Amino acid sequence: MHATLIICSAALVVLTLLLGFWTSVTRGRTKIIAYGAAKDPAGPMLKAERAHGNAAEYAALLVGLFVLTGFAYAGRDLGLTVTVLVVAITASRFLHALGFLTCKTLETPHPLKMLGALITYFGGIALAVMVMVKVL
C-alpha cells in the first residue's frame, strides 16, 4: 500500500479520535452529558458533538476509498493527481472540523466548513471516478 494512503487514512482516524476526546472533555466542562442534550448552536458542546459526528461519518468512507485506491494502484505509482486529491481530501476534513469548532454559531455558514465540505465532495467523487476508470 502506498505511504500517502496509509498516512492520510491514519490522519483521519486520529482526527476522529481527537474530536471524540475533545467532545468528552467538553462534556465534563459543560456538564452536558446526555446525548442530544446540547441545544445551543453557539455553545461549545453542540459544536464539539457535530465536529466529531461529522468527522466520524466521513472518516470510514474516506479510509475505504483510500484502501480501494491502493488496490487499484497496486504496484503502480499513484501519480501527482491522485496524491494531491488524497492529501487535499484529508486536509479538507481537518479544515471542516476546525470550522465547526471556531464558528460563532452552527446556524450560519463558516468558510472553513464550506471549503472543507466542497473539497471532500468534489475530491472524493473525482478520486472514486479515477479509481473506477483505473480498473476498467
Fold and architecture overview:
- By secondary structure, the chain is an all-alpha fold.
- Helix 2 (44-72) runs antiparallel to helix 3, helix 2 packs parallel to helix 4 (111-135) and helix 3 (79-102) runs antiparallel to helix 4 (111-135).
- The chain has helices at 3-30, 44-72, 79-102, 111-135.
- It is elongated and about 50 Å long.
- The protein has four helices and no strands.
Task: Describe, in short, the structure shown.
By secondary structure, the protein is mostly helical. It has helices at residues 3-30, 44-72, 79-102, 111-135.
Looking at this protein, list some descriptive labels.
136 residues; mainly alpha; 4 helices
What is the topological layout?
Blueprint: H1 3-30, H2 44-72, H3 79-102, H4 111-135
Helix pairs in contact: 1-2, 1-3, 2-3, 2-4, 3-4
Overall morphology: elongated
Give the terminus-to-terminus CA distance: 20 Å
Spell the H/E element sequence.
HHHH
Helical content band: over 70%
Q: What is the number of helical segments per DSSP (H or I, 4+ residues)?
A: 4
Rg from Cα: 17 Å
β content, as a range?
under 5%
Count of β-strands: 0
Low-pLDDT stretches: none
Q: Average pLDDT value?
A: 94
Largest sheet: none
Structural class per helix/strand content? mainly alpha
